[in-house]
Amino acid sequence: MYFLPLGIRAAIVAINKLPPTPETLWFRLLGRGKVQREAVEELVALPPSDLVRRNVLEIIYRWRISVMTQTELTKDDQELIMNLTQAYEEARAQAVQEGVQQGVQQGVQLERRQVVENLLRFRFGSVDEELSRVVESLLQLTPEEFTPLCLELSREDLLARFNS
Fold first, then answer.
1. 3-state SS of the chain?
2. Would you say residue 155 lies in a domain?
3. Within a domain: residue 26?
4. Residue 154 maps to a domain
5. Which string of b and e fits 52-75 if b means at least 16 CB within 10 Å?
6. Which of 12, 73, 84, 104 could potentially form a cystine with 2 if both were Cys, beta carbons 3.0 to 4.6 Å apart?
7. Which phi and psi (to 5°) does residue 144 adopt?
8. Which residues contact 56 (CB under 8 A, 6 or more apart)?
9. Domain span at residue 143?
């Protein structure tokens, strides 16, 4: 780092001279050539849950979208896109996988909700506002636990048990 006079309050950072540490990763990603490629390799090697990795990849998504809309890319932009392609593709694949898993979990919750509501409808004719408040509590139980409760307890017993 080269510090300018105190009145200016600035410094010049020679990115290619920075040590390869986690603290300098952000700066080295802004470098060029070998420095940037090595920084990207370090970024990709970080675990998917790492906050720095997630933040950098989020910035890359946005930047890549804005750059790809340009008709002519500079040589630096082309090099950066090439260097970041692996990290981008890995993060995109992980995001898709997380979305699929989240969708499956939401689908299972929705199916369980429908099962509970159908059991209550079968038993009591409809699910009014009072019974709909009981549904949330029943969903905390396993199907083996909530099925007999829905079929055996009276409306008053269900409300008393889960509204307290």
1. CEECCCCCCCEECCHHHCCCCHHHHHHHHCCCHHHHHHHHHHHHHCCCCCHHHHHHHHHHHHHHHHHHCCCCCCHHHHHHHHHHHHHHHHHHHHHHHHHHHHHHHHHHHHHHHHHHHHHHHHHHCCCCHHHHHHHHHHHCCCHHHHHHHHHHCCHHHHHHHHCC
2. yes
3. no
4. yes
5. ebeebbeebeeebeeeeeeeeeee
6. 12
7. -65, -25
8. 25, 26, 29, 43, 87
9. 46-162
Q: Write the pLDDT tens digit of every residue in 94-129.
A: 777 777 777 777 777 888 888 888 888 888 888 888
Q: Establish if 143 belongs to a structural domain.
A: yes
Is the pTM higher than 0.85?
no
Distance CA 8, CA 3 (A): 9
